[in-house]
Fold:
Amino acid sequence: MREEYDVVVVGAGPGGSTAARTAAEECDVLLIEKRQEIGSPVRCAEGVLKSPFLEFAHPDKKWISSYIRGYRIFAPDGTMLEISAEALGIEGELAYILERKIFDSELAKDAARVGADVMVHTRATGLIAEDGLVKGVKINRLGEDLEVRSKVVIGADGVESQIGRWAGINSALKLKDVGTAAQYLMADIDVVEDFCEIYVGSRAPGGYAWVFPKGEKLANVGIGMLTSMISGSRPIDYLNNFVSQQFPEGQQLGLIMGSCPCSDELKTTICNGLMLVGDAAHHCDPLSGSGIISAMEGGKIAGNVARKAVQQRDSSVRVLKEYENKRHRALFGKLQHHNYKIKELMVTLSDNELNKLIQTFKGVKPQEMSFAGLAKRLVVVNPKVLLIMYNLAHLKELTDVLLKDN
Ligand SMILES: Cc1cc2nc3c(=O)[nH]c(=O)nc-3n(C[C@H](O)[C@H](O)[C@H](O)COP(=O)(O)OP(=O)(O)OC[C@H]3O[C@@H](n4cnc5c(N)ncnc54)[C@H](O)[C@@H]3O)c2cc1C
Structure:
């Protein structure tokens, strides 16, 4: 390991590895990861929508465990809304369930192939700051304290990020904007292998339960809920309850717990010499808790902006501002603020209101989805549900891009 690089990236998740790979095409890059193995342990349900994902990766059977034709969303009363590739006019699958342990490691390998130095068991412990500019990272590598200087630091250290805080960026999440989850990898269960299932309502307050198939009789079965809505029972208690109802005979091969940001955009994700990417920048969909693709999207933009800063020998916010601007205009940037508004409304719905919402959508063809069309179908007009429908109908314009067939 050298004492100086153009760019140091902290955290080898999808955001960090994508940033490192992009920057390494022109710059000297160091990618550090505190864990001893990249991608492990997995704290994720591993679902990604195909179309936006293809912008950042070429699907490989090595790290895809399931090809998903659609989603089935279940209301508390059991009403099922199906969204399938077929109904949307999309050829083939709509989504993938990844094998993240392999996927994350492959992304880091890609960064290494392009020339980045990759180091595991190497933890960032602080930042080097001089004259109002971040100039590198303090690290602990295998017990030894070291300093690595750089022109740009990219903080991709996940939901528990400290890089932002060290740089003086207020990246604290409110409890109402943190999703907390528990998930079993379950075997010997009856699952539809090419559909993801989502269960909403009071069985997962302020969130949802999911069954994401990972092959024959195997699935990620989890529950995520807003931390502010946890009172008494924890996500694992809700999950055990869900599992005992849905899969009483199933076997548990693994249990993970984790959290993700479910917030609006972080006001500032840069300072002189530093950019935050992925969960560290709160770039996670507040409605679904999905953050893999948006971390890669941000990582790619940040990697390109880092290259520019190095070329121009200027890593002040004047140059790094392009990262925020481009990310804001990018697909997941546009979706985030919108989805946050929908999330804030959705969490206030009772089981009864959720039943009505899902009943309203059931049977609506995607091409017919407009606010006026949906409003007409709503028998009992509930202002909250109407407002959500208004936002969802607008969201459709954005998701048309998201779901377009590549
Ligand atoms: C239960 C659960 C289910 C989820 N399911 C989905 C899903 O189905 N689809 C989806 O798109 N998203 C899902 N997410 C969210 C998704 O996992 C994250 O949004 C995504 O991993 C963010 O990528 P990232 O690169 O920003 O951060 P991460 O993937 O969290 O990577 C950050 C990396 O930084 C490392 N690190 C942290 N601190 C330091 C340090 N000081 N020094 C060095 N390294 C450090 C960490 O070890 C980690 O490897 C889920 C999250 C949870 C908790």
